[in-house]
Amino acid sequence: MNKTDIEKEIVSLLRDSSLAGSRREITLHAVLGEQGLGLDSLALTQFIVALENRFGIEFPETIWIERGQLKLQDLIDIIAEIPKPAVASVIQKHPQPAFDALPQGVTGTASAVREKGYLSLSLRILSHIVNSFIYLFYREDSFYILSFDLVNQPIPNYEAPESIVIVEASPDDISTVQQVWHPSQRNRKTRSFKDRLALGHTCYVARTNGTVAAIDWMASTEIFEPTTAIKVKFSHGSCYGFDLIEHPDYRGRAIGLAMLTYCLRRNKEDGFKTHYTIVHSDNEKMLLASIQLIGFKQIGQIITKRFFKRPYPGWKINNQSGAGRELTL
Question: All domains of the chain, ordered by start, with CATH?
């Protein structure tokens, strides 16, 4: 499959997986988000899955995080450079047979394959038990530090659905905000909500028909992040977004994107120059949305190691390394 064929295949996949079959013109040098191809988080995820399935590949995390906003042409170039791209065609034309259909003497009998499957499952269970035991003594978490230039970067215009209204929360909103949290978390989250407002942090809520569909927090003074075990401080003109939560019943409607871009616009109006956030490396959905759709840039990484639950955080920002319980952005 040459590069021209790959380009045609990718454009076709984009139309079918994420653009509902639309025949509109596709610009290869457009970014994937609202200011380019117009994808939201769900459409982007569907497109990525379609690409990986079609070409039999798995994109490494670094492509989406370290290279910034990708264009469609970038994806074409990346896939064209992968050795033996025709493997995907073989996979699709010759799907993996069911256990009972496996020919004798080729990959073993069906029962042998089943036994291997049981062995594999047993090993995974054992691995999980061992990892859980080790987890009590040692744990390592990785986070990405992202930034958005409020002065020079255009802010995407992801709008919330018509029924959604985004406003700044007050202490009186606690009874409705509680709807977002799981019942087991409400007491702790309620205390945290009150404490954060008392410290001067800002909470935005997305309301609809008496329900809170999402909440998002913003801080412009120092804040302690328990997941990283770091007290984050901010230089003049900087602010920090954190703890975006969507109500389970309203996920998949791009409300999170609307909340993020609303906060960016508000922060710019308030005179801030840079908006920061920190995202766990496992939170692929948030990383994809922030970097590929909105335009955040990855500027650093935090590694927090815990020995017997005692944290030892360290970080690297713009090729400079540091360690300790305080970090100034």
Answer: 3-92 (1.10.1200.10), 139-328 (3.40.630.30)
